[in-house]
Amino acid sequence: MPASAPIQSAGGSQNATPSSTSPKKISRILPAVFIIFAILIVIFGLLKVSGRLYFDGGIPKLGLPVARVGNEAISKAQVSKFSNECNLGEKEALDFLVDNKVLDKWANDEKIIISGEQTKAETTRIGGKDPKDCKRLAARVNLLRNALLDNLTNFRSGKYIAVNFDRYIETPFAKSDLSAAELTKLNKEERQYADELVNSLNKDLADKKVSFEDAINKVNEDPRFGLNGRYATSVRSGDFSADDYAEKLGLMASPDLRNLADSLKIGEISQPFVVRFDLNLENPEAKPKMVDIRYIILKVERAGSGYQGSGDQLLNETRSKYQVMIY
Question: What is the reported pTM?
Answer without folding.
Answer: 0.59
